[in-house]
Design a protein that fits this description.
By secondary structure, the protein is mainly beta. Helices cover about 10% and strands about 40% of the residues.
């Protein structure tokens, strides 16, 4: 899963008020007027701009589209990512807004229509630059795992390595962003702010920050938590145009639609890493490398001893691929949010190249078994 790049600036403050009708009671009492919808923020990616009509269409991370309309008093400002002082924003025209830009619209919302008093715009190129920088930093300083204990101001997670699961205590720094994923979402922009007290034992946590020299603790600038599931399956069909696929769940034997969006991390494990993980799960496979049987098939794992360290970090550093690069018949492992729609999941992380991990020793049968990505980059046990 890649954290989004704009969650610090584009916090969703969804607070649309319901309109309550008050019935007239008697002749002497006039009907009460319904309150006007409250001003709120709507954030999304621009999919259409109509400068002449002073309107544009936004699509949120959840896939909902809003038509945003400006009036003569509306303001449109552009701000570079990383800048938090709105006085440094540049005044632009709606014609300067492009498809693919990120926009925060402030105004009244009714029936997925926003009458905006202001727009704050971040260009697509700025978004891409910040996204790349953030992803590189997560790859370098990120850690993930299952929460094993909590205290007032910190949590301890189990970080999986090829040598076993090691504890790490995570404490937020003074300005840390702490969030919890929303159902059916893998986006930081839609994750809700929480306190450390709301993180529970059994939650999956991913954090980014400065690790101690011995790797036993971290001072975190960002923490995200959630409840996730891990599924293993075989691809039945691929719809690359819509970034989704039909997968046969190896446990339930039922088809599941797996959706991938820009927040999803899609990786392919290198053969050496995949085989090393298989040996960790099935130590008896290490014997395959003895007696000259290291040639191929389920054997050939003589190099697994050279792979060591934080497993989640190694998975994060695996090559990124696209849905179009996958093939029908490939085995995959998917960590996903616990959502509301049966038979459909949104991937946080999708791993290909996992056949050695899933195949039971001495058989052709594949199953997830005890392996659990923990939803956040493979760090949970």
């Amino acid at each position: 899963m890649r954290p989004t790049i704009n969650h610090r600036k584009l916090q969703l403050l969804a607070s649309v008020c319901a309109v309550i009708s008050v019935a007239a009671v008697g002749r002497a009492q006039a009907p009460a007027a319904a309150p006007a919808p409250a001003a709120t923020f709507t954030t999304g990616t621009v999919t259409k701009v109509d400068a002449a009509a002073k309107s544009l269409t936004l699509k949120t991370e959840a896939g909902t589209e809003f038509i945003v309309t400006l009036d003569t008093k509306s303001t449109v400002r552009s701000i570079p990512l990383g800048v938090t002082d709105l006085t440094k924003a540049t005044v632009i025209q709606i014609g300067d807004v492009k498809v693919g830009d990120r926009v925060q619209a402030r105004g009244k919302v009714e029936d997925q229509k926003v009458t905006a008093t202001s727009l704050l715009v971040m260009s697509q190129s700025e978004v891409a630059k910040k996204q790349q920088a953030d992803q590189a930093d997560w790859d370098k300083r990120g850690v993930s795992g299952l929460v094993t204990s909590v205290s007032g101001d910190s949590v301890t997670i189990g970080v999986r390595t090829l040598a076993g699961v090691k504890p790490m205590t995570i404490k937020p720094d003074a300005g840390a962003v702490i969030r919890k994923y929303a159902p059916d979402s893998v986006s930081f922009a839609e994750a809700k702010p929480v306190t450390m007290a709301e993180i529970k034992v059994g939650d999956q946590v991913r954090a980014r920050g400065d690790k101690s020299a011995d790797g036993a603790s971290m001072s975190a600038a960002e923490i995200v938590s959630g409840t996730f599931k891990t599924m293993a399956g075989v691809i039945l069909s691929i719809d690359a145009a819509n970034n989704q696929m039909q997968v046969r769940d190896l446990d339930t034997k039922k088809p599941v639609t797996v959706k991938v969006n820009r927040e999803s991390s899609v990786k392919k494990l290198q053969q050496q890493l995949s085989q090393a993980i298989a040996v960790q799960l099935h130590p008896e496979l290490a014997n395959d490398t003895k007696g000259g049987r290291g040639g191929g098939g389920r054997g050939g794992r003589g190099g697994e001893g050279r792979v060591s360290g934080d497993l989640s970090q190694m998975i994060e550093n695996s090559p990124a691929i696209t849905v179009a690069e996958l093939k029908v018949g490939d085995a995959i492992v998917v960590s996903h949010t616990v959502g509301a729609t049966a038979g459909q999941v949104t991937a946080i992380k999708l791993l290909a190249g996992v056949e050695p991990i899933l195949t039971k020793p001495g058989t052709q049968e594949m199953s997830l078994g005890s392996w659990n990505l923990g939803g956040l980059g493979g760090g949970a046990d």
